[in-house]
Amino acid sequence: MGSVLAPIALLTNGIAAxxxxxxxxxxxxxxxxxxxxxxxxxxxxxxxxxxxxxxLANGTTLLLDVVLAVTAGDGTAQIGFAAAAxxxxxxxxxxxxxxxxxxxYIKSLDPAEQPDDWALKDPRRRWRAWxxxxxxxxxxxxxxxxxxTVRLA
Length: 153
Description:
With 153 residues, this protein is mainly alpha-helical. It has one domain. Helix content is 86%, strand content 0%. It is built from six helices and no strands. It has helices at residues 2-33, 36-50, 53-71, 75-107, 118-121, 124-152. The mean pLDDT is 96.
């Protein structure tokens, strides 16, 4: 069973980690440079495109890692899959408690009407820090899943 599930976990984890890494490398620096109006418009455009994919990819990987942590025949692989699952649980926790609320707030804003207190409320730097943390954890989960899958071979 591990020979079927582990490659699927690698695929879904790789997709999510790759998207998150591309966000850190390209999208976040662009967002930090945008003026208010363009930033809000960009979030309005991107969020509905990323939101359905990321929870599905991370959730699928987490579920597969838990199954593999229980069923993999190799003890070291089991520990690896369990560690990857913990990393992904943290990724999802950060997403739900830190990043999604910021995105919801930005989605509630009108790009044409900047709030008077925007300089105080601008969440981009805070969002970047949490996004970098969850991306690092997703990449660590991916590397751990590679290690655990190799152990099964």
